[in-house]
Amino acid sequence: MEAPLVKLPQSHLRLADLPNRRPSPFSLTPTAEERRAIADALGIEGIKKLRFEGELSPLGQKDWGLQATLGATVVQACVVTLGPVTTRIDEDVSRTYLAEMPQVEGTEVEMPEDDTVEQLPETLDLAAVMIEALSLALPPYPRADGAMLEQTVFADPDVSPMTDDDAKPFAGLGALRDSLEKKDK
Predict the structure, then answer these.
(1) Of 5, 35, 43, 82, which one has the greatest count of Cβ atoms within 10 A?
(2) Domain ranges of the chain
């Protein structure tokens, strides 16, 4: 995992210091200033609420599992009107941290089926996991209710503008086929 976009105090856990026989609960609720910094780093207008809570559980001798829920209320710009769009996000987050990652051989590598498996870090930054999960959960094209993208046509004054229908050369073939079938009857 890359360095976190925003550093939150007390979000780093040294896994060797956690009890290895029972789950260790955690809860992160960033302050307004921290939420503003996260929103800026993610390129969105704002984060009204943000909470990341769950537990880290030992898996065998050296490995760890993270099970958490991410709850957030975010504000993004509408892709059509650029007006604010508020979205509620509730996501389950799961990660498995392995002390020994499987070795990949060969020149071409495929994505593993389980994309939640990561190398076991010495110190786990829960804020980085939270921000990554939030960035993946954000709607890619937020749209305000009723916002419609209308067709806009641009051309020089003496040129007939090309429309979407002109870009579909086979669109009129169905009507031509139907008219030829009527003539044959």
Answers:
(1) 35
(2) 12-137
